[in-house]
Automatic annotation (TrEMBL):
Its EC number is 2.7.13.3. This is histidine kinase. The chain crosses the membrane at residues 12-35. It comes from Aquimarina aggregata. Keywords: ATP-binding, Kinase, Membrane, Nucleotide-binding, Phosphoprotein, Transferase, Transmembrane, Transmembrane helix, Two-component regulatory system.
Length: 271
């Protein structure tokens, strides 16, 4: 009798152990399936994020090229064209008064200087060789040359070389802020400061325009802030826009060098 009870207990124990083992196996399979599903979902999200990043880079390069062509058109028409027209008038005057030839020489020399500056925008090899500070400096020089606004730039030495794709995004963000300043803010002055630190780059861009207080202001919408913010997020940059009516607008961009490196691992030729 005792032997039968012992055998029943052993069989029961084996059955319970088997059931527990089966449940553990099912649980492990379920956990593995959930893990695999999440892993696949994460991989898909990463691929989509990378695709979006690469698409944004291409779109941004197109926008920069379009902006460059507009700049070239404006300079040829409004600056160099006027200088050459002036030179033509001075040549006609100099035919009767040779002493005016010196003025002709000065005007033509100035025209050549302007053309050399413009050639930097036209030559893609020159643009590719520029770092962020140099590219922004070219923009600032153009604003002053065209007398759009009185603009200044300050920068310390670049402590860490930025990825080309990051530079493209940051440069386009600054371009959008500059465009708003010139077209909408009615500002007289624009100041840009690039501060390279050990772990991050801090950029301040400030104008002395009309500014705004209302968060839903049409002026703020005109800046394309949502577009600026979305591009900032792609590279892990924090962007803050501050403005006060009558006291101008300031944008602060902080980019940490080590953020979002996974999006930049694979080199892609966008030319």
């Amino acid at each position: 009798m005792e032997q039968q009870e012992t055998e029943i207990l052993q069989e029961t124990a084996i059955l319970v152990a088997s059931i527990v083992l089966v449940l553990i196996i099912i649980l492990l399979i379920a956990l593995f399936a959930i893990f695999q599903k999440r892993k696949n979902s994460l991989l898909i999200q990463q691929k989509e994020a990378k695709k979006k990043f690469e698409t944004t880079i291409i779109e941004t390069q197109v926008e920069i090229r379009e902006e460059t062509l507009r700049n070239i058109s404006w300079e040829l028409h409004d600056n160099i064209g006027q200088l050459l027209t002036l030179a033509k008038i001075q040549v006609n005057i100099a035919q009767d008064d040779p002493s005016k030839l010196e003025e002709v020489t000065e005007t033509i020399t100035k025209s050549l200087t302007e053309l050399r500056s413009l050639s930097k925008l036209i030559n893609p090899d020159v643009i590719k060789s520029l770092n962020l500070t140099e590219a922004v400096t070219l923009e600032i020089e153009r604003f002053n040359r065209m007398q759009f606004i009185k603009a200044t730039i300050q920068s310390n030495e670049e402590l860490e070389e930025l990825d080309d794709k990051v530079e493209i995004i940051i440069f386009r963000i600054l371009q959008e802020f500059f465009t708003n300043t010139i077209k909408h803010s009615k500002a007289s002055n624009l100041n840009v400061d690039l501060n390279y630190q050990n772990d991050k780059l801090i950029i301040h861009a400030k104008d002395d325009g009309i500014g705004f207080n209302d968060k839903n202001s049409s002026l703020k919408k005109g800046i394309g802030l949502s577009n600026i913010q979305s591009r900032g997020k792609l590279i892990g940059a924090d962007i803050q826009l501050d403005s006060e009516k009558g006291k101008g607008t300031e944008m602060t961009l902080v980019y940490y060098y080590k953020k979002n490196l996974s999006l930049l691992e694979d080199d892609v030729d966008y030319d």
